[in-house]
Please model this.
Amino acid sequence: MAGRRKLGEAVSQTNASLRAAAPLSVGETSNPPATVVVAQGHKRRKAGKRSDPAFRPTTIFVRKETQRKATRLLEDYDTGKDFSDLVEELVSNWVTQNSHA
Model:
């Protein structure tokens, strides 16, 4: 609620300052001072799994406590992996080990 109040106050102050500004004469234009905006190079985050066609969302059932502990361990070891990466790695290894080709 406080955020809305602050936003409302800011809008009221802006409106008041606009009303207090001197009106323009006929033919006069309001040219704000030129500003130079320098674009900084933004690093693009790599595309997520959701937008990668090589991945498919899949629902699995894992006990809450197992998922919590695994997620916590991944964060503690600072592997840069999430739970989905762990499951992908484990299933991929299983498939490799059990493929008879």
In short: Residues 48-101 form one domain.
